[in-house]
Amino acid sequence: MQTAVTLTLNGESRAFDGPMTVAALLATLGLETRKVAVERNAAIVPRSCYAETWLESGDALEIVHFIGGG
Amino acid sequence: MDGTLPQDDTWTVAGRRFRSRLIVGTGRYKDLEETGAAIAASGAEIVTVAVRRVNLSDPKAPMLQDHVDPKKYTYLPNTAGCHTAQEAVRTLRLAREAGGWNLVKLEVLGPPPTLYPDMPGTMEAAEALIKDGFEVMVYTADDPVACKRLEEMGCVAIMPLGAPIGSGLGIQNAAMIWMIREQTKVPFLVDAGVGTASDAAIAMELGCDAVLLNSAIAHARDPIRMAGAMKLAIEAGRQAYLAGRMPRRLGADPSSPLTGLIR
Predict the structure, then answer these.
(1) What is the strand order of the sheet B135-140 is part of?
(2) What is the ipTM of this complex?
């Protein structure tokens, strides 16, 4: 059964068809898991847990990567 | 001796051994191609990187890893832009998850225009990070008391500024850098302030194990050429330090013999 999941991704509200795991979200967004890190509600989601971490409406996620810096 | 450094002149931080004594930032370049080329020209083995939100509207944008290979270079995640201990710790925990690295550069900055290290925030973050298993190379004020305290806490490298970040003013505090160098048992670097090659040489002549810089290369008119100049300056400064400079004296001391002068 499809249920909508509303998430705050890097500060912006986005709606997805759910239920959805972190792994599925990253795939939907087109991101390579090995190049990013994910924080869900201010707690880091270990990469090994992406496939079994289910997202809930209202979750706030930060998805970060490395960029040039000094 | 042909002027090249002996092959065994290496330095070690947190159990990792490096030959290059130049650590370069990867920020402020025109594009990622230039970043990659300048870093290659610098000979650096360690590069600092920042952690930021992914641009979700353009997930296929080229990433730093595509131009600066993390298998070839040691990535040193930094906390640039963090003004509190909490932000810095959170950033480096994400960096560890993104890349698996425990070796990190901590900086907690005060407000503009100096962006001077916020030492209470730096101490608080260093303590939390070390407790959490990180190996912390720490950007610090040129304060010998604070530097000693950070070393005693377990920071793996002490990195005072030579001048404010991005100022390019050179080593404004040579005497203090030398004094802190003398008391420091772990790797000691100048981080921030270098503006051109001679500044890097001066830092090395003062006995630094390495120098960390970014803008001096990235904001040069020809960054790739400046990267090469920095490589040579670091090597020259290191050689001069090992060679031991002559004493300074107040007055002349002729180089030619005074005997056998024609009359």
Answers:
(1) B103-106, B135-140, B157-160
(2) 0.89
